[in-house]
Write a structure and sequence with these properties.
alpha/beta, Ribosomal Protein S5, domain 2, 2 domains, five-stranded parallel sheet, four-stranded mixed sheet, Ribosomal_Su5_D2-typ_SF, nucleotide-binding
């Protein structure tokens, strides 16, 4: 007897529907799996057969064949256990084949019949909604995550007996387990233990942080050890605009595929802050594996990717950031295909100006000119060209440290940032962007109108500073953000001069 049920395989960020077919026929007793299954998927035959026996269900002593369609995609992971069990039960006559029509199943089964959660459930449920399935059946541990998808009935099962029961009578689940409201963003979801009020002094650096967040620009902090570079970077998410529900769902989908969601509160309500160690490999940054998973640049999507001690990262790990910084996506090519991951992150990096950290203060710096040049040379000019702002973080005086904090709290700064973002949202409502930092060359010409005085200053700077075309565009983007912060339609000379001041770092250090 033949039976079939729908499941899905995760390929990068894409979900590929997989039809799990089972056939029970006469012949020598065997359990065969075909259709390009991986070693993990092949192990499902032993898990399913043992789980059925331990729950009092005996398969007939016949030939059992399970096929995965399409056969040209390798099936990975333990998420095929439930669909294999359901297909075999239907093919054996225990379940009627019509019960499996229009149902998507995924989950891992243990030897005693318990069903365990698996990563990537949210992406599978979204795909099931696109395919207009009747409902999804997932592990109970993934139920809160699956219910984030609107207009898609979801059933959570704890063990094999519940699987059989709810497949026969799906309405029983909704009677006994009424739909719980999906987790919502709370007013204090963005609140953390850190605040800009904790930072003494550093008014110039705080201003640069506000500009960077308002336009989603990349920023570099340069200064001696202990001046507060890492403190500033850690507080960037506290002044970023709150996530919309669509953005939260997009991030939750990424973290679901990566297997990093919390079981208690799966919906991600805070912007990501990723701070990989400087020993992180290029594969960890971009996403590795034969079938790549999300790397740090993808896990930082819609948030901050902070590189502390930037020159200590390997050259390969840094250079891999160049393409996603420009395109906001990263494409990884493997023998099995090309995989595209979102990478719309805001880069925040911190570094010392030399190995000892005190250059250009020659009274304290112990480095030779060659050592300083070698240290700074670890960061290439093409990568520097993609950084919009650089701010120097100077040592804090005793009076500033000993006195009470005089700065603004993150709440106040974030209110200004959200006002600036609203201006950008209204301006770009017909474009596929949200921030000035995402402007393309054509859009810069359309939206970055500069006064005559500003143009003259920009022309002088272009010649004297020997700016590249990319640097020129990034100066205009930053100037556009500064003008938005001051609610100006046109970019004036003061906005251009301030944007240029954040590009002078390469002439001071990288000479």
């Amino acid at each position: 007897m033949f039976a079939s049920v729908l499941s899905a395989s995760i390929l990068g960020m894409e979900v590929c529907p997989i039809q799990v077919e089972a056939d029970v026929s006469d012949g020598l007793p065997s359990f065969t799996m075909v259709g390009y299954p991986s070693a993990q998927v092949k192990e499902a035959q032993d898990r399913v057969r043992t789980a059925l026996r331990n729950n009092g269900i005996s398969l007939p002593p016949k030939r059992v064949t399970v096929n995965f369609v399409p056969a040209d995609i390798k099936k990975e992971g333990a998420g095929f256990d439930i669909p294999v069990a359901a297909a075999v039960l239907s093919a054996a006559g225990i379940l009627h084949p019509s019960l499996l029509e229009g149902v998507m199943l995924a989950g891992e089964i243990s030897l005693n019949g318990e069903i365990y959660p698996v990563p990537g459930i949210l992406a599978r449920v979204i795909k099931a909604r696109e395919l207009k399935c009747r409902y999804c059946m997932v592990p109970y541990g993934n139920l809160q995550e699956a219910r984030l998808v609107k207009d898609m009935p979801v059933i959570g099962v704890k063990d094999l007996k519940e699987l059989i029961r709810y497949l026969k009578n799906p309405e029983d689940f909704h009677k006994e387990n009424p739909d719980r409201p999906s987790p919502k963003e709370t007013e204090n979801a963005w609140k953390t233990r850190v605040d800009f009020l904790d930072i003494h002094g550093q008014e110039g650096a705080k201003r640069a942080c506000e500009i960077a967040v308002s336009g989603f620009h990349n920023i570099l902090f340069i200064g001696p050890p202990g001046a507060g570079k890492t403190m500033l970077a850690k507080r960037l998410p506290t002044i970023m605009p709150q996530l919309t529900f669509e953005e939260s769902l997009e991030l939750t989908r990424i973290y679901s595929i990566a297997g990093l969601l919390s079981a208690d509160s799966p919906l991600i309500c805070q912007r990501p802050y990723r701070s990989p160690h400087h020993t992180s490999s290029a594969q960890a940054m971009a996403g590795g594996g034969r079938i790549p998973g999300p790397g740090e640049v993808t896990l930082a999507h819609r948030g901050v990717l902070f590189l502390d001690e930037m020159p200590e990262f390997s050259r390969r790990s840094l250079e891999i950031l160049r393409q996603p910084m420009e395109d906001k996506v990263i494409q990884l090519s493997r023998a099995s295909g090309t995989f595209t991951f979102p990478a719309g992150f805001m880069l925040a990096a911190a570094m010392n100006p030399c190995p000892c950290g005190f250059f250009p203060d020659m009274n304290r710096c112990r480095c030779t000119p060659g050592e300083v040049s070698h240290y700074l040379g670890k960061i290439s000019n093409p990568l520097l060209d993609r950084i919009d702002l650089c701010t120097e973080v100077s040592p804090v005086s005793f009076q500033q440290m000993n006195g009470a904090p005089e700065g603004e709290p993150s709440d106040t700064i974030r209110e200004r940032v959200e006002r600036t973002r609203q201006i950008q949202l209204e301006r770009y409502q017909k474009e596929n962007i949200c921030f000035n930092g995402e402007l393309s060359g054509r859009q810069i010409q359309k939206y970055c109108g500069v006064t005559e005085e500003g143009n003259r200053l920009l022309e002088q700077a272009f010649r004297k500073m020997e700016l590249s075309g990319r640097a020129y565009h990034r100066i205009l983007k930053v100037a556009r953000t500064i003008a938005d912060m001051e609610q100006e339609d046109k970019i004036h000379v003061s906005h251009i001069s301030q944007a240029l001041s954040y590009r002078a770092f390469d002439k001071k250090y990288w000479v």
